[in-house]
Design a protein that fits this description.
Layout lengths: L7 H12 L4 H13 L4 E2 L15 E6 L3 E7 L9 E7 L4 E12 L2 E9 L12 E12 L6 E15 L11 H5 L12 E4 H11 L4 H7 L8 H11 L6 E10 L4 E3 L5 E4 L2 H18 L10 E7 L16 H12 L7 H9 L2 E5 L2 E2 L22 E4 L9 H14 L5 E4 L10 H9 L2 E6 L1 E3 L6 E4 L1 H22 L4
Parallel strand pairs: 1-2, 4-13, 4-14, 14-18, 15-19, 16-17
Antiparallel strand pairs: 2-3, 3-13, 5-6, 6-9, 7-8, 7-10, 11-12, 12-20, 16-18, 19-20
Helix pairs in contact: 2-7, 7-12, 8-9, 10-12
């Protein structure tokens, strides 16, 4: 292996992205900011793309501010040419604040939360937790005098919440043997002690805020000190908070670790590692010399809600991909929607479904099938499953392995689940069945998936970048040489 030091700068950039992206809102915002700084123009989904999207152009748009579509149109694009798409997801298992957040017990002020996704919830205990998400804010338009609702993003890095474990002295023998978590009873974080906070609330409500709460039934069900903290962080009045969508996150920032700094420790590696690397790859490709002769559309699609089944307006089960391909194809055909051209485009397209993969765990090596046990820092993993939990088949697997061979980059690793173990799934089968686009499932290997804090090898970030750039560069030549 090359000197590990050469992989550290890119890994440090990943750390910055991960620490700055505690939720899908911030992940999309941070990716969009990087795209804009490299010449990508934001599109509005409410307006036609025709007369705006042109060959050689670079564009992006968001859906619900939690999903992102970004693409660069090759200067040599012709009607009916294909799309080279990398897909990932912006969401991760976490604790989301319930619609009625106010909660207390045994002298403590707490927060009502709901489990999102299949988290390893025992890992959320005894962590210093912050709060982030989207806040809807009322304001008045200075010109029209009409009320408007603005969306603001919130990120409170202070450790204002904590889910504490029960001390060993109060546990029964059975409880000591197995840490069983009741998700409703045991995961409510503590914000503070009731008497202290109630005194602060009394001071806060001096004036007309109490009258405002009488009018706003939503606010009456929220923790007042939380509303005050949100208002302070956003520089607004409490009365202007109309609603919010918030979640908790571990305030410990992403960091490099291991005896030679060969690992990256962070929350949300599944699947923000993909979001970070795919954004970097698209930018690198659209800034490269090979882009000047590109005749396809190079695209990334970062979906929301993969962890809960993808069935939403911004998930992989939505029309998002099909709509993106259709609208861009129509715009590049002068505004004419031609089913035949679109069908030809789909047949020339390819979708890399990228979601983090399971590296073999040295303490639990028997959980992997011995011939399909990927290791960290050894390359991106192709995922295969004969029962279509993953979409990889003979053709799609060959195409990606051939891209790797032609580019001369780190060979792919292979993962196939044991016959006596269940197999997870991801966005690949959903996108393939919704669009008919050829698809492969792959991902960078990691340990501790769905933990509050996960780990991956830093070399695999570069391996992922190399693969994605090679995909954008070499796919068309390889696909054109493939019979049928």
């Amino acid at each position: 292996m090359a000197d590990i030091k050469q992989f550290i700068p890119f890994a440090e950039e990943a750390c910055k992205y991960l620490s700055a992206s505690p939720d899908p809102y911030h992940a999309v915002q941070n990716s969009a900011t990087k795209l804009e700084s490299n010449g990508y123009v934001q599109l509005s989904k409410r307006n036609p793309f025709t007369d705006t999207v042109q060959p050689g152009g670079k564009y992006y748009y968001t859906v619900n501010k939690t999903a992102l579509v970004a693409f660069a149109v090759g200067p040599n694009y012709k009607a009916g040419n294909g799309f080279k798409i990398i897909g990932g997801h912006t969401d991760s298992p976490n604790l989301k604040v319930k619609p009625r957040s106010k909660k207390n017990g045994s002298g403590c002020v707490m927060l009502g939360v709901e489990c999102y996704g299949g988290g390893m919830w025992h890992t959320w205990f005894d962590r210093d937790l912050g709060i982030s998400g989207r806040v809807l804010v009322r304001s008045t338009n200075s010109d029209s005098g009409k009320e408007t609702i603005e969306q603001k993003f919130l990120k409170i890095d202070d450790p204002i919440a904590r889910v504490s474990t029960l001390c060993i002295h109060l546990q029964s023998a059975d409880e000591r043997r197995a840490f069983a978590v009741n998700k409703e009873n045991h995961l409510s974080p503590i914000l503070g002690t009731q008497q202290i906070l109630e005194n602060a609330v009394e001071e806060q409500l001096t004036g007309n805020i109490g009258e405002e709460e009488e009018k706003d039934f939503w606010k009456k069900e929220q923790e007042p000190l939380l509303l005050k903290l949100i208002a302070s962080k956003l520089g607004i009045d409490v009365k202007d908070i109309a609603d919010f969508e918030l979640n908790l996150f571990d305030t410990q920032p992403a960091a490099l670790g291991g005896i030679q700094s060969e690992f990256l420790y962070s929350g949300r590696l599944d699947n923000l590692a993909t979001c970070f690397v795919s954004t970097e790859a698209l930018i690198a490709h659209s800034n490269s010399e090979c882009f000047e002769t590109d005749g396809d559309v190079s695209m990334i699609c970062l979906f929301d809600h993969e962890e809960v089944g993808s069935t939403s307006a911004q998930g992989a089960g939505s029309p998002l991909i099909a709509e993106a391909v259709g609208r861009v194809t129509t715009a590049l055909s002068g505004g004419e929607s031609n089913h035949d051209i679109r069908a030809a485009c789909v047949r020339k397209s390819f979708f890399l479904s990228i979601d983090q993969a399971h590296a073999v765990h040295p303490n639990y090596a028997a959980k992997h099938e011995s011939n399909h046990a990927p290791q960290m820092n050894k390359g991106v993993v192709i995922k295969s499953n004969a029962n279509q939990r993953y979409t990889t088949n003979g053709i799609t697997g060959f195409i990606v392995r051939e891209i790797v061979r032609k580019a001369g980059i780190t060979p792919m690793q292979e993962f196939c689940v044991r016959n006596d173990c269940p197999c997870g799934s991801t966005i690949g089968p959903i996108v393939a069945s919704q669009t008919g686009i050829r698809t492969i499932d792959a991902g960078m290997p990691q340990l501790s998936m769905h933990s509050c804090r996960e780990v991956m090898g830093i070399v695999d970030l570069t391996n992922g970048l190399d693969l994605f750039c090679a995909f954008f560069k070499h796919f068309r030549d390889i696909d054109d040489a493939l019979e049928g």
